Every structure is written in structure tokens, then in C-alpha cells.
Amino acid sequence: MAHTRKRRSPLGATVTALAALAGAGLALYLYLTPLTGVTGTIGALIVVVAALLVALGAILIATTGHPVWRWLTILGIIGTAIAAAFLHGWWIVVAMIVALVGIVLDGIGPVRKEQGAAT
Amino acid sequence: MIRTGTLTLAAALTISTAPLPLLAQDTGTDEGSGQYTGQGDGAEGDTTAGESGDTSTSEDGTQGENPEEPSAPDEDTEGQEAPQAETGAGTEDAEATGDGSATGQGAQATQRTPVPLVPEEPTWNSFHGQLSAQKYSPLDQITPDNVGDLEKVWEVHTGDVSDGSGDLPTTVWSATPVYANGLLYIGTPFYRVLALDPATGEEVWSFDSESRLEALTQPALKNRGVSYWEAENPVEGETCQKIIYLGTMDARLFAMDADTGELCSDFGDNGALDVNQWNDTNNKWPFSLLQPPTVAGNHVIIGWAGNDWKYAEAPPGSVFSVDPQTGELQWAVDTIPEDIRQETGTANVWTAMSVDEELGMVYLPVASPSPNYWGGNRTQEIPLATSTTAVDLETGEVEWSRQWVHHDIWDYDTNSAPTLMDITVDGEEIPALMQATKMGFLFVVNRETGEDVWPIEEREVPTGDGTVEGEVYAETQPFPTKPAPLLDQAEKADVWWLADLVGFGQCSRLFDDLWYEGMYTPPTTEGEGVYTFPDSAGGVQWGGVAFDPESQTAIVNTSHIAQYIQLYTREEFDEIQGGSGNEAGYYPQIGAPYGMSLQVAMNWLGMPCWKPPYGELVSIDMKTGDVNWREPLGSSQKFGFYMPESMGSPTIGGPAVTAGGVVFIGSTMDAKVRAFDIETGEELWEDTVEAPSVSNPAVYEHEGRQYVAFIGGGNTILKPQVGDQIAVYALPE
């Protein structure tokens, strides 16, 4: 018997993932580049890892659609933004705001119906 | 005029006026509590003979006014030709004294010409810019209006850096560049000298002392730069008419030609003077020359650092003046009475000194005796310990001395050069001196006489809980009435709620367990120990006070750090002793009945237990002694995370001020360098350097352009971030 599944457009999750990757890249830059003020610090590494986890969360949102990933990703975005602010990594904060916008888009975006396989 | 006789250094140094007994616990206020008055003109009272067997006498003379011819040396002393000279100082019958002021073997007195306290030309040719230690530049290209346009015009990385992870100890680089002879000179913690083009940073020459890179007396390889001397009447065609001096951890002072970097062969032994030849009492470690010597006239004045945390019996404090071209000893000052030199030690001068060339006085900031936190081996008075002591530039004779901590058992070394300033108080022009201290007190006295400008009161202080064997506490200590203390030591600081919350009440419990009855509560064996505020690194560090002579404004940075000290019986200490770092950890005090620990009050996450701010920048009107403004300075940083700037940062280093109305300072944990408006305290500019800039910046003019130089060197007291960067800023051309 065939069935249909409701899925969100991947636009929001894609925005979140890309913003999170950008944030991770910026944090890595701060970690590696001399005279950023946080060069080689544990704090910068934490933000790199946290931003990568946000990107992973976005992928899980897109692939599973399970609401738990949405909420965990939101928490991850907020935490990463706060940590980045304490690093004075203001562009990372901007990236996290964009990531949050992606989550919002994912929540309000058009729902796509998918035809399931016969069982 | 007399000539000194045959002298051996080991026989102690002679030609001295014996000091008056210091009223170490004097309760007087108006008359200058704790004031030691050297002879000078003999007006202060009888001089007393010291105990040195080697005596020489001097006639009454006019202090420092007449040139004297040096006498011929009579014999060599430990490989060093014994210097000979007449003393031109106004000594009465004098002997080598033990108690505080043994002075040396004769000075090569020279004619002094009047030297204004504030140089007429922009001068930054010594550690604090000028010998007055004002850290003041009359340059005014950079102003509050344009300082925001400052840009980094060059930077140099010396390569002389270690984070301690390899074979080398970590580096602590607190140097201030010296601008002289058209070049910028800097020493490094690997004990090299670089001579750089001041406009581009291009290396002109370098010198490598090939010194041992070992932490012989300090936990790190440390350097605070170099010194510069030039002959008043240079001999054409001769080398070494301009000389750069570099000290090393292993007690050698190198002298090199300022034009070429070639060693001056006439100085010491082919260009290197072994200062350790004078280390003849409790020689447990070398005299480490981390602070560049103070150079004034024809005197290179040398203090030294040591390992005062380790031993109760240590080399006793001494300051040497040597000839700038030969290294021959001119005079020496001993800071500990001869009869107890074997039992204690240190009370040394490890930081910069200041000089009033017109008065002919050198001002010595003298440290505490050893061991740092127990005084049962030194219960008699040590008048010059933890003091500011004024000595005659030509003879080393003590003119006056003010002791800032009696029977110091808190390691409250006098740790910065006093700032000399001419101020107008109640309409009276006063030749003053401001001594910043680790305690956060700013003592202001007349630099000619040592008398109070604003009253310094002797107040009763806690005298122990009876648990410490052999200790005899001072009953009173000096407290300045103006300016107000830079921090409030009257009670324990408030606990910071956030650190307490994160620590599940850890901070509250710790503060409850620590004993404290106010400033100068002594160390104890009981409970968690005694609370101490400020910490051993100090409310003010070696950067000292900057002074704008135009507005008579003093600028000083502070640290607010709470520590706790505990003494342990020898048996307990041997069981529990752990590692030690820079101003924190476990220290044996070998030879004392107690080892000790010194810890910063933090929770398990490393958050400070006390309420911020942790550091401030303070402006004081020296006409009134009142605070103009005070602002939190910088951001604290942990794991890379910056705390809000409203919380400030602990600071090490110091400010420089300019006639343009700008204060420049690094000093903070966040490794930023900043500029402030001297009138308002408003932050106007900042940049990031490689590591905390833990020295004073240098302000110089080269080919008509004003530059500001910072060193990003780092200090493990602040955080384990090190650097090797010289960063120089200027306005766009």
C-alpha cells in the first residue's frame, strides 16, 4: 500500500548548515591566525566544535525532520553565539543569527508531500 | 678629601656614614614616620659606627659638588681592580656600616651640571623613559582627536620566546625599548640585544650574550631591557663612547658599543662584568640581572634579583655603582645590618631606580628581607628593608630612607622606581617623590628630605594569632592619608556571586575560613590560612606611576587580586608540598621552621572568588591628592573568553603619558594595547598584540615623526601566553 510523508523544504536547514559551517570557519580562523586575541585558545576550539555540531543538527533536521533535533540545534546556536560573543568573534555571532533564521525558515516553510513506497 | 685605603670587597665596603637608628615603629606622623635620615650634612643627629672592620673615614665635604680625582688602586679584588676615589660626599667620621648603608670604595666624583627633572627634548633613553621615572613625553603629534587613526607601522618578532613546553623555561619579557643614538635598542629574554631602525624595525646589529638559558633564580627567563650611556665628552675615533648594557640571569653585565654591538673590551673582563664576584654572603644563587641597570652621569647602578622564595638565608641586599667604561666598582650600598646578614638576606633592589641628577640623589626601591613570609630569623630592625632609600649619586651614602612596611612578612617588596615630580600643594612648590607599592598605597614625600607631603600615619595593625614560632610582629605600619589607597584592604572583598554560584558555595566557604583582621594580618598556620589583599604580585607593579608635569596628573594602573597564605610546619610541608609557579604555589623557605603556600582565591573553574573590578586605571590630581577619575582597565580572559570590560583585568606593566594629552598602556590579560584621554579617562584606541604587554610603552620621535612602541611579551603571572613581538604605532604619514 502506498502512503505519503510530509516534509519541509530543505531551504531552512540548508541555510542553518551553511551559516554554521561559516561560523566554524571563522572560529578556526580566529584559532589559527596570529594576533586575533584568541589564537590557540581552548575557547576558540570549543566554538569551532560547537558550530560544527550546529551544522550536524541542521543536517539531521533535514534528513529526519524530528523536532528534537530542531530544539537541540536552537540550543546549540544560542550557546555558540554566546561563546563567540565572549571571544569577541562578532562575525560568528552574525553567522549564528543567520543559522537561527534558517531554523525559523524550516519551521514556517512550505510542506512538501512525498510518496512513500508500497509495503 | 680623603683617599680610601686598600680594600677588599669581601671585607665589606667602606666610607660610609653610619645611619641613624631607623624609627621603624615610630608612631609619629607629621615628622615623617619610619624615616631614616642619613648624614648628609650631619644635621639629623649623631652618626654611629657600624661593625665592619674595614674602616675609612672621610672629611667633611660638600656633597657632590666638586669634582674629585680618583686615586690609584691599591689592589685587586677577586679579579676586579679595586676602584679608588675620593668621596666627595659630606660624610662625618664614618665607617662601613652594616645597618643599612655601607657605601663603597670611593666614588669617581664628577662635576654635575644642572639637569631639569623634565628633559627639554623628547627623551626615552632609559627603562622608564627618563631618570625621573615620569614616563612622560613632551611629544604632541598624537592627540585625543587623532589617536584613533594610529596604525601599526612595523613589527618585529625576535624569535626569543618559549612557552615552556620544550627544553627551555617559559619566557617573561617585560622590556621597554630604549631610543638613543638614533636607534631603538631592546634586550630579549634569551639575553640578546637588538638595535633596530626606529622607523622601520630593520635590524642594524644584534648581540648574543650566549648566556645560559636556565631558570637559575626565577621560574622563567626574564628580561626587562637594556640601558644606555654616552660619554659627556666623547673621544673621537675611540669606540665605546656610547654603550649599551645587558644583564643576564647568570649575573653578567655586558657592555657593547652602541654603534656596532661590539663588546667594550675595557669593561670588566673583555666586555662582561661578573657581578657575582660580590656575592660573598649566603651565596646560594647568582645575582640575576634581569632589570637593566640605572645609568646616571658616570655611574652604572646595578641591582639584582634572586630566589627569595626558597631560602631563609640568602644573599643580603646590595646595590653597586660601577664605572660605565671599565666596570670598576665605585660604591655599594648594603641594605641589611652586618650583624644579621648571615641569618637573613635579600632586601635587594630588583626593579628600576630613579635619579634626580640635579640633587645628585638615586632613589632605591628596596625589597623585603628573606624569607618572604616568616620573620623569626630577623626580629631586629632592618631599617632599609621594604623602603624607598635615597643615596648620594656620587658616593652611595644614604641621605634618607622611608620604610613602607615594618618587619615585612608579606613579600611587599617596593617594586617600582619612585616617580619624581615637582608639584604645587597649597601654593607651595614641592620637589616630591611618589612611591607606588604592592600594598596599593601611594606614598608621597619630599624627595630632598624624605618628609611627608601629605601625612603618613603609623597605625596599629594585627599582631598574630600566636601560632607562629619565633615571630615578633610590628605593632604599627605606615598608612598614607593622601592619595587614598588604590584599593580597599580594610575588610575582605565581597564574594562574587557568580563564582560562588558556579562553585556551589566554594568561594563563600573559603572566605569564611580565611583569617583577616585588616591590612597586614600576618600569616598563620591555622585553618585555610590568612587572606591577603592585594596579592604578592602587587596592587601596583614595576610599571609604577606616570606623571604629566603640565597638569600635575599622576596615572597609575592597579590590580585587585585576593590571595591566601598558609604556613606549614616543616613536617607538614614535606608531606604536602606541591609545585610552584610565578607568585603562586608552594615554597619551602628552607632554613625557616615553616614552608608556605600562596594561592589565588578561585573556584574550581578558575573564576576569581572576589567581586570585580580586577584592575583599574587611576588618575590623581597631585595638587590635591584627589582622584580625578578611575576606570576598569581591559578585560580578563580565560580559555580565550573575554570577560566584560566593566570587570577590568589584573595588570602588569604600566602607562606612559604625553603632552598630547594621551595615556598609552598595555598591561592587561587581553593582550590589548590602549590609549586613553588623560583628562577624562575615555578609551580612545586599542589594538591587539601577541601577548600581554607587561611593560611600559616607549614614546619617541624619529625624523620628525612620533612613535609608540609596545612589547607583546607576556607574563605567566597574568596567563600562560608568551610573545616575542615589538609593535610600533604612528599616525599615517
UniProtKB/TrEMBL annotation, chain A:
UniProt entry keywords in alphabetical sequence: Membrane, Transmembrane, Transmembrane helix
Source organism superkingdom: Bacteria
Residues annotated as transmembrane: 12-32, 38-61, 68-86, 92-111
Record-given protein name: Uncharacterized protein
UniProt source species: Roseivivax sediminis
Automatic annotation (TrEMBL), chain B:
SUPFAM superfamilies per UniProt: Quinoprotein alcohol dehydrogenase-like
Signal peptide bounds: 1-24
GO cellular component term of the entry, any: membrane
InterPro entries: PQQ_b-propeller_rpt (IPR018391), PQQ_mDH (IPR017511), PQQ_rpt_dom (IPR002372), Quinoprotein_ADH-like_sf (IPR011047)
Region (Disordered): 24-125
Cofactor entry: pyrroloquinoline quinone
Biased composition (Acidic residues): 66-79
Top-level division of the source organism's lineage: Bacteria
SMART domains: PQQ
Keywords of this entry: Oxidoreductase, Signal
Sample GO molecular function, one term: oxidoreductase activity, acting on CH-OH group of donors
Stretches assigned to the Pyrrolo-quinoline quinone repeat domain: 124-708
Pfam families (alphabetical): PQQ
Biased composition (Polar residues): 49-65, 102-113
Family designation: Belongs to the bacterial PQQ dehydrogenase family.
Protein name: Quinoprotein glucose dehydrogenase
